[in-house]
Amino acid sequence: MEYNSSSDDEWDSFLLESPIFKSRKRYWVHELWQQRDDSGEFQNVCTVIKNYPSKFYNYFRMDISTFEYILNAIKNDLTKYSNFRRCIEPEEKLAVTLRYLSTGMSFRALALCFKMHNTTVGAIVYEVCDAIWNRLSTTHLSIPTPEDFLSIANEFNVKWNFPHCIGCIDGKHIRLRSPTHSGTMYYNYKHFFSIVLQGVSDANYKFIFVDVGAYGKQSDGGTYASSTLSTFINNENNLPKSSNLDGTSVEVPFFMLGDDAYPLKHNIMKPFSKRLLSKEEGIYNYRHARARRCVENAFGIMVSKWRLLHKPIETTVDNAIKIVQCICLLHNLIIDKEGQPCAQTLISAASSYENDRNEKNVRTNVIRPFNRSSNLATFVRDTLKNYFISPIGSISFQEQYANVQK
């Protein structure tokens, strides 16, 4: 075929009509995916259950208003345009992602439900998790200021009778499919592959800090030592200045509450060793455990709601990190929008977390690098111990429960 025109427009027209160009424009879509608008789960279930609030909550693990709040925040990031086919709408992308997080279904299983390719499901999940984190983390999981920490400490004192506490810290192993070329770095003492989620909760079961991605083989104390949280807490400018305990002239710093796996430091309190425990130390340990239950409940509530955390996450480590961060953010967001969990939820959460706690307590041969406590840290804990048995700091039922714990 001869083509003699020098016009750019004519040359473009020639290319558009050529067989080579046309063959590249063809897109093959499986006939099953072509049924999405007619028989996909989004069209047949998700849009219908909006008329049934309780069914909607069970399906998405949140109220309709919370779903709409998230959608409005991220829909501009999820909107795509194409001249070749109808793009998946932001609402359907959010629905796919929430079903993945709440059920733990594989990408392949969700692909059949929503009538789309499993690689499309994966791409949607990562895209939505990124969008949720980027748009909403500063609102629902921002790093506290010194003024925020003072408010948190006041709530711990009022609700849990533990003064100067700015948060409770703990770690949780998040199951992974064996990462490629990782050796044993992600293989933990529970004998599965994992990354560590280290979280700090406030007095209302919300996370105020999360650090995701440490190697599974690390202990909680080792994870903390190498974390951004440790760097942040050790910078005294980030915390409120030391102040007197209520009703006393004794000045103590503000601190977090950890378990036995953490070091005793002036900004982290841990329980007394249970060996040769005195009555006063037993009371301190009870008060410590009572307040620290907040982080245990926070993890338990989150795990019971987002069932993906019950099984290995079958993605790369980087994608698993963004998924877990998104789940932590959703945990906070739902509490902010829907209020505190009910008593039955807390009972279920405590039961869920206790399974992890029992496994953690039977750990053996774990190296604890933090075995020397500073004089200030010891002074702070002893001061609290004495405060809790004083008329000012004691609570009426502490001896009864302290005896049970011993």
Automatic annotation (TrEMBL):
Domain annotation DDE Tnp4: ranges: 169-332
Protein name stated in the entry: DDE Tnp4 domain-containing protein
Keyword line: Hydrolase, Metal-binding, Nuclease, Nucleus
Any one GO MF annotation of this record: metal ion binding
Subcellular location: Nucleus
Superkingdom of origin: Eukaryota
Annotated InterPro entries: DUF8040 (IPR058353), HARBI1-like (IPR045249), HARBI1_dom (IPR027806)
Cofactor: a divalent metal cation
One Pfam family of this chain: DDE_Tnp_4
GO annotations of cellular component type: nucleus
UniProt keyword Nucleus, yes or no: yes
Domain DUF8040: 44-133
Family that this chain belongs to: Belongs to the HARBI1 family.
